[in-house]
């Protein structure tokens, strides 16, 4: 297949600054040169390409929007979105690694952490000398984090942590885990606090999860805490209740809204190229009306998603973005990306299930992306509550 040609039907390039285009093009080249040549093999084996980790640190894409004083790039949110787009054009697992490191580990340390926590961890995480993970989801509590069982009990100048977390990206590679636990005697979600649990702390155990049919090139783990003694200085001083972890998820969902478009763009371009080259009944597949209809619909949905993501980035940079808008963008863009991947698979026919063409890999990955960081149903209910003023969650 020919080199990737980015779908840009509404001339979005013209709305990007030179710096934003340079960031996108740099990460696009990185994906073409470093991710695509190895990702098929890693996906098939179910392994994460750890050789990319220091390269991502050198590229400056980790914690890219955070201040330069912590070794970060200080980019705007449009540039950060484009980073996610281009990494996920390679693979959702690569974008997930960077997204967790940036939005779910570095962001809470920056937003909720002490000066000491920021100085200790942010430069290490930005350079990828250290890796982090985010422990919120539990075996029995995903969409309802308020029901978490993991608990931290104060004992002198330490907190004793007990519980478990599941579906944790980067888990068994991590040097530090951002872990959320209840600290009160009852089940009041207002008692939820965040802790930095460090690799090697006695009682902290991590086990990699295998047998996945999706996100196979992503590192996924379970975290177990058995009387883990966490120093008081490892608690976030500026996060209480669900507002802390939910604020992190808003950051991650923003990146996902852009990232899913990268997967959609890759699938569309592969389908377009394939349809132009494949001869069916004596003429190119692209010459058939049904194929043109499919391609036109795919491009339309991608274009709508691109415009939504771009304007969301503008709102975020202006400090006007709210989490309902992020829910809509995540819900819409992942949904259309999965639809585009499925239709691309149809256009490629039997070749659509071959990893050589990447489409089936994106399609399977997007099934997970649609679920994590809030399912479509949860996001639609959040939007519905905003519209009506009535909660339908319970």
Describe this structure in words.
The structure is a single chain. The protein is of the alpha+beta class and 394 residues long. The protein is 50% helix and 14% strand. It has 10 helices and 9 strands. The strands form 3 sheets. A 4-stranded antiparallel beta sheet has the order 2-3-7-6, with helices on one face. A hairpin with a 2-residue loop joins strand 8 and strand 9. Helix 3 (77-90) runs antiparallel to helix 4 and helix 8 runs antiparallel to helix 9. The longest helix has 35 residues, at 243-277. It is globular, with a radius of gyration of 21 Å. The relative contact order is 0.12. The mean pLDDT is 96.
Give a brief outline of the structure:
The chain is α+β, with helices and mostly antiparallel strands and 394 residues long.
Characteristic key phrases:
50% helix, 4-stranded antiparallel beta sheet, single chain, 3-stranded mixed beta sheet, 9 strands, alpha+beta, 394 residues
**What is the subunit arrangement here?**
single chain
Beta-strand content bin = 5-15%
Main sheet summary: 4 strands, antiparallel
Distance between the termini: 50 Å
Strand order of the largest sheet: 2-3-7-6
Order of helices and strands, N to C?
HHHHHEEEEEEEHEEHHHH
What value does the average pLDDT take?
Answer: 96
Number of helices: 10
Regions with little confidence, pLDDT below 50 for 5+ residues: none
Helix content: 40-55%
Radius of gyration: 21 Å
User: Using DSSP, what is the number of strands?
Assistant: 9
Structural class assignment: alpha+beta
Basic shape: globular
């Amino acid at each position: 297949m020919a080199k990737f040609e980015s779908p840009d039907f509404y001339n979005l390039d013209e709305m990007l600054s030179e710096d934003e285009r340079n960031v996108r093009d740099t990460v696009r080249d990185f994906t073409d040169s470093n991710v695509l040549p190895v990702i098929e093999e890693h996906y098939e084996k179910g392994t994460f390409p750890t050789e990319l980790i220091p390269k991502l640190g050198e590229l400056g894409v980790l914690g890219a929007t955070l201040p330069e004083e912590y070794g970060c790039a200080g980019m705007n949110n449009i540039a950060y979105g484009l980073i996610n787009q281009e990494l996920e054009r390679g693979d959702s697992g690569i974008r997930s690694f960077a997204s967790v490191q940036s939005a779910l580990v570095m962001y809470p340390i920056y937003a909720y952490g002490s000066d000491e926590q920021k100085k200790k961890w942010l430069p290490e995480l930005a350079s990828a000398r250290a890796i982090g993970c985010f422990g919120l989801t539990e075996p029995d509590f995903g969409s309802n984090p308020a029901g978490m069982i993991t608990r931290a009990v104060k004992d002198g100048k330490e907190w004793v942590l007990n519980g478990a977390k599941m579906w944790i990206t980067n888990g068994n590679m991590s040097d530090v885990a951002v872990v959320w636990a209840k600290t009160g005697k009852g089940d009041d979600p207002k008692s939820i606090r965040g802790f930095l649990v460090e690799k090697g702390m006695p009682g902290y155990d991590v086990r990699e999860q295998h047998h996945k049919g999706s996100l196979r090139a992503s590192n996924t783990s379970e975290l177990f805490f058995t009387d883990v003694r966490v120093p008081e200085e490892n608690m976030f001083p500026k996060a209480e209740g669900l507002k802390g972890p939910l604020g992190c998820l808003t950051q991650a969902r923003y990146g996902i809204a852009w990232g899913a478009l990268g997967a959609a763009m890759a699938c569309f371009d592969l389908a377009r190229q394939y349809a132009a080259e494949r001869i069916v009944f004596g003429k190119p597949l692209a010459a058939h009306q049904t194929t043109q209809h499919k391609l036109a619909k795919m491009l339309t949905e991608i274009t709508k998603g691109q415009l939504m993501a771009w304007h969301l980035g503008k709102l975020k940079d202006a400090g006007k973005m709210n989490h309902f808008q992020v829910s809509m963008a995540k819900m819409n863009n992942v949904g259309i990306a999965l639809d585009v991947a499925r239709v691309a698979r149809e256009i490629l026919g039997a070749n659509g299930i071959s990893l050589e063409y990447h489409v089936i890999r994106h399609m399977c990955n997007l099934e997970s992306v649609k679920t994590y960081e809030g399912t479509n149903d949860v996001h639609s209910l959040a939007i519905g509550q905003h519209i009506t003023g009535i909660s339908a969650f319970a």
